[in-house]
Design brief:
The protein is α+β, with helices and mostly antiparallel strands and 110 residues long. It is built from four helices and three strands. This is L-rhamnose mutarotase.
Length: 110
């Protein structure tokens, strides 16, 4: 099943507060159904997170990143999730507003 044009790919970086690694992974073991539905309604096709120590790297495939942010801003499921997750994050060392700048990628074969 396709969703139209190719999605935007966005990389994000967040950082955990020291000692929150295990809790963060436990919280992500089961994503609430209402949050899953909200993300999909907002155009998210895929969201992956890798962790290196306290650093979290997110790779998001989304129809439109800015529209996604706008749609989720007032969504009760995302508001509840952000409250839960932000308690675990070092928000002074996180950048989720605009994403990371792409430096290089292996071009697709012609």
């Amino acid at each position: 099943m396709t969703h139209g044009p190719a999605p935007q790919t966005v990389a994000l970086r967040t950082r955990l507060k020291p000692g929150m690694e295990k809790i963060y992974e436990e919280v992500h073991a089961v994503i609430p159904g209402d949050l899953d539905a909200a993300l999909r309604r907002a155009g998210v096709r895929s969201w992956r997170i890798w962790r290196d120590g306290l650093d979290l790297f997110h790779f998001v495939e989304v129809d439109d990143f800015e529209q996604m942010r706008a749609k989720l801003a007032d969504d009760p499921a995302d508001i509840a999730w952000q409250k839960r997750i932000n308690a675990l994050l070092d928000l002074d060392h996180s950048d989720v507003a605009h994403g990371l700048g792409l430096v290089w990628q292996l071009p697709a074969e012609a």
